[in-house]
Every structure is written in structure tokens, then in C-alpha cells.
Hints:
Layout: H1 3-19, E1 33-34, E2 44-46, H2 48-56, H3 60-71, E3 77-83, E4 87-92, H4 96-107, E5 131-135, H5 139-154, E6 159-163, H6 168-174, E7 180-181, E8 190-191, H7 206-214, H8 236-256, H9 271-278, H10 280-289, H11 293-307, H12 324-346
Parallel strand pairs: 5-6, 5-8, 6-7
Antiparallel strand pairs: 1-2, 2-4, 3-4
Amino acid sequence: MTPAELSSTVLHAVRRAVDAGELDVTVPARAVVAPPGPGGCGDYATNIALQLARPAGQPPYRVAEVLRPYLVGVDGVADVVLTGPGFLNISLGGAAPAALVEEILSAGTRYGHADVPDAPDAPDAPDGSVVRLHCPHDLRAVVVADAVARVLRCQGALVRVTAEGFDREWTAALGVRVDGVGPARASLPVTVRPVPAPADPLPLGRDAARWALLHPAAHDRPRIGDEHLAQREGNPLFRVRYAHARSRALTRNAADLGFAAEPGPVPDAPQDLLAALGDHPRVLAAAAAHRAPDRIARHLVAVADAALPFLPAVLPRGGEKPSAAHRARLALAEAAGTVLAGGLTLLGIDAPDHL
């Protein structure tokens, strides 16, 4: 069961409770499911009971108690535990990783993108209007605006980027572009004005420079130094790209052994990895809504850190023969690599197969 399917399942549970007369509410348009917070458990949690408590005229915990029986026993749901004031913590069954992995591999690097990428009813453009981003004559502002535009477009928005000034070398060095140069002319442009970089990042090269400018939040001062080029675990960019390259190497090695990936149950699948992969669409949507590509960068680090300990166990060891479990693990590894590649692409950073 994918996060989108689980959200629909939660809404169906609400509808069944309403039809049974146990809740007197209007079924909401959507139910948010996300990895459990502090004190939570399972694979996903939802605050739907807190959302419905006031219209239902009941305490949130009581609403959660009403909904729990309608979720327990649903195909793909192994258990539901109530925590806090009324959070429903949902544990998925063994088939859940297979469905999530299949969805990711089917969508490829477009996993998490809007269903209709060029649709005018995407974030901030409900009537087909253009989202106008404007930035000062500052390299970090232009890079952030470029990344924001990429993320907005992946969510279906129409975007136009303008800047007070623009140096042509920025396009050659960092791959950024703007649609117009000069003062803001739109009536309500979105101004992109992050804290400027303390030094020139161009000597770092395209990938490291973009990461150095995009990984920190806009209100944080970026660090511009050789640490972004270091091939070691202390460098987040290296961990992300290394995890991606390792996943691609596993695919090549598996082919040498005569087998390929096939989504299926992975009993030993890391729950933090599954949660991070399932959360990718929400992260992209949030990054678009808040004009915050740094959310994607931090999310990629979380995916890489969850994937790296798992990757050494993917291939057969010693005299083992490739089995369904190995094919399923390989599929999960490929899904992690796919998410990493897609996220890096949105940040304008290369995802090499060899590192």
C-alpha cells in the first residue's frame, strides 16, 4: 500500500464510520499520512481524528477509537495503534514495500511529480497564472530561484524567473537560467532573497557549488569550502551520490550473477528507508509550496543514510543462489537510487552511476 493509497484508505474508514452513524461529520477531501513523529510507532501516522474532533463534537481520542476498527484488517494494514491525543499509527503488512517499490520503479525519476506536470491547476496557479519568481543580482538567489522553479514545474506550475542582474558565466558554470533581467514588473512577484554566500562558490564546480548553496535553509548562511568536495562520509553530498552510485553498481553486479530486480516482500527492509521513500512525494509538494529546495536536499540525505546500511545485504553471499528475496532487496535498492537521482536532478545536480 502506497502513501496515496493509505490516505484513501483512511478516508474510506471515515466514510464507513459516517455511514454507520458513529460519526456525524463531512468526509474531508484528503487525509494526511506521514512517518510517525516522536512517541509514535508503525510505518505511518495520521492526525485525521484531531482534524475531525471539533466537527464531530467528540474528543480526538474517541474519534480515533471509532476509526480504528475500520482500518484494522484492511488489506495491507497489519495493525493500528493510538498514541498521544488521538494519532492513528498504522503498521503496514509485508506487501507494502512491494507496492511502494513498484510505484517508484514504474514512475522512475518522476516519482512524486504531479500527475499532469504541465497542468495549470498546480500549486499557486489555480487559474493558469504564472508563478513569478524575482531575485536580486546575487548568485545564491539565482541558484535558489532556479531550483524552486524546477520543483514548482515538477508539481505542475507555470513559472517565470526574473533577476535584477545576471552574469552569463553563471549559466555555463552552474546551469542556471532566468527568463528576464531587470526590476520586478509583475504586480505580485515572489521575491527569492536567501542569505548571500560569504564567498564565491564557482571554484567548487557545478554540483558542489549548487549543493553548498541549496542544502542550507534560505535564512542560513551557506558554508563555501572544500568540505563539499571531500570523498568521505562527513560530506552529505558525497553520501547521497555514493548511495545512488552503489545502487546502480548493485544492478550491474546482479546482472553479472544472472538476475534482476523484482518488487516483492522484504522482511528485513529498513523501516526508516521505506518511510523516507514513501514520504518523497510529500517532501516535493512541501518544497514547492514553501519555496524551499533545502527540504529536498535534507530529505535526500535521510534517504541515503537509511539506504547505505541496507545495500551490502542485497546481493547473494558466498555460495548463495539468487532468490526471490534477493530480487526484492535489489528492487528496493533500485527504488532508493531512483529517488536519489530524481531529487538530485531537481536540485540541478548530477547523479553519476560511477563515483
